[in-house]
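Just wondering, can you check both lines?
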Amino acid sequence: MKSVLQIAAAISWLCMVVGVIGSDGIGNVRDTDDEISLLESQLVVTSPSQLLMVPLTLIQAAASKGAVCLDGTLPGYHLHPGSGSGANRWLIQLEGGGWCNTRRSCIFRKTTRRGSSNHMEKVLAFTGILSNKANENPDFFNWNRVKLRYCDGASFTGDSQDQSSQLYYRGQRIWQAAMEELLSKGMQKAEQALLSGCSAGGLASILHCDQFKELLPGTTKVKCLSDAGMFMDAVDVSGGHSLRKMFQGVVTTQNLQKELSTTCTKHLDPTSCFFPQNLVSGIKTPMFLLNAAYDAWQVQESLAPPSVDLSGSWKACKSDHSHCNSSQIQFFQDFRTSMVDAVKSFATSTHNGVFINSCFAHCQSERQDTWYAPDSPTLHGKTVAESVGDWYFDRTTVKAIDCPYPCDKTCHNLIFK
C-alpha cells in the first residue's frame, strides 16, 4: 500500500460512504472535509462484503428534549455491540465534519448529512478504532463501539436556535440525549470507557471529556482521545488568523458563549475558549492527543485558504508538500513548533498521552491504514493503535513527538488534486 495517496475515481459503493459535497464553513460548495474523505477512501482495499457495516439508529426520545439536527430532524448513531471481555466496555466516537460559521452556511448545511439525518448514510463501515477484528483493532475490537453522528455544526456544543431561518443549534442537547440513550442501553454498567472523536469530533471530545467522566460511575475507568482535534489559533500566510475568524463566526452564530468552559472564559474571550490549546491543560480526565504535526485540514483551511492566497502561490504547495519551496516548508515548521509548544504543559501530566507525527495527514484513528496495518505510520516503533492501547491500559507512558519533516518515512501523506 502506498504511503502517499492520490485521488482517483472512487469505487461506487464508497460514494455512499463519502456522501455529498457539503459546506466549507463559509457557504461555498468546496469542502475540504469531503476532499479528505475521498482521498482517504482510496486506501480501502477491503471489499464491501468484508467490511462491518453498521446501521443508523435515530434517537426517538430526542425530539421531546429539543435535541435535534440543524433542520429539526432526529440525531442518530451507529452501535455495534460488544462481546466477551468487551461486553461492559464502551467506545464512543464523535463524528467530525467542519463547522458552519454564518447563517448562510448553516442553512446550506441543513441540506447535507452534516445538518440533517434525512441525508445521513443508513449504514456506515466500521474501520480502524471501530473495527471488530482483533488483527485490525487489537485493544478495542470487542467493545461496544458507537459512532455518534454530527449534525449541529458546532462540535456538539450549541443550545439555541434561529427561528427566522428555522435553524436549530442544539449540539449540547444532542450530546446529552445520545449519552442518556447509550446509558440506558448498558453504558451505565461500563467498566471501561473511551470517548474519542476525529477533527471537529476531536474538538468535541476535548470539549466534552470531563462531562463524559461525570456521566459514568466513579468505578468506571474513563479516558478521552482527540484525533486531529488540535486546531491551532495560527497565523495564516497573509499574516491574519483565518481559523480564528471562522471560529468566531461559529461561536457568535450559535451563541456558544454560555456553553464553553467557564474556567477558560473567566480569563479569555469566548472564541479563544473554542481553541483546544486554551483548554487541554485544564481537563481533569486523562486524555490522549493524536495529531499530524502538519494537519492536512489546517494546511488547507487555516494556514493557506484561498481567501488569503489570492495569487495562488500556495496552491501547489498545500496540495502536495513536495511542491513547496524552502520558505513554505519553514512556514509549516513554525506551525509544527507552535503545536508542540501548545501541548508541553498538557504532556507533563502522567495521565495524559501524546502522539504527534510529522505527517501531512488528518484523522488517523478511523482509517485502517493509519490505525493498525503492516505499513502503518509509527513513532518509537509503535503504531497509533499500539500507542493508544499502551496509554489507555497503562502499559506504558506515551509522549511521542516526532522529529520535524522530512525525517519520518512511515507517513501516509495526503495529496490533493
The longest strand covers residues 52-58. The longest helix spans residues 326-342. Residues 1-29 have pLDDT under 50 and may be disordered.
